[in-house]
């Protein structure tokens, strides 16, 4: 009998990017990869846009979690133009999200939390160490913030990313 001890859920849905009403300014090259981002810049989202996003978050997550409130919300944009983003996570919050505003080809890779141990124990032929996420334009993906991920070399893409906590 097979039993799954630990699982790592992600939630995926579709959004209308125009309804998010996000204005991002002050883009800079950031992180080790020098990704062009508004992470530490100015990101203004309308109340209607925030409500639209929160409703989408709650709709997706409520399949598994009863949410009372979304809090500690942060949002930004990343521009990929023959660029990438190194392996990282968003520790310090419950959930992270990516919205694929403009994308030609999926390039986000998620890593198993025991990726290094799987490789060190020579078990990589038995267990997946990483997964290339299957996404399209206007997909919203929510995932636990502890989950390592990266963006492979990408010719052209625009994403909206962010973090949030929940109250149960």
Which runs of at least 5 residues are low in confidence (pLDDT < 50)?
A: none
- The share of residues in extended strands comes to over 45%
User: What is the SS-derived class?
Assistant: mainly beta
The ordered H/E elements are: EEEEEHEEEHEEE
Shape: globular
Cα distance spanning the termini: 34 Å
Count of beta strands: 11
Give the proportion of residues in helices.
Answer: 10-25%
Characterize the biggest β-sheet: 9 strands, antiparallel
Return the average pLDDT rounded to an integer. Answer: 94
Rounded to an integer in angstroms, the radius of gyration calculated over CA atoms is 16 Å
Helical segment count: 2
Protein model, in words:
With 168 residues, the protein is mainly beta. It is 12% helix and 47% strand. The protein contains two helices and eleven strands, in the order βββββαβββαβββ. It has helices at 47-61, 115-120; strands at 11-14, 22-25, 28-30, 35-37, 42-45, 69-88, 95-103, 108-111, 130-132, 139-144, 149-167. The strands form two sheets. Strands 1, 3, 4, 6, 7, 8, 9, 10 and 11 form a nine-stranded antiparallel beta sheet that branches. The longest helix is centred in the N-terminal third of the chain and has 15 residues, at 47-61. It is globular. The termini are far apart. The relative contact order is 0.27. The mean pLDDT is 94.
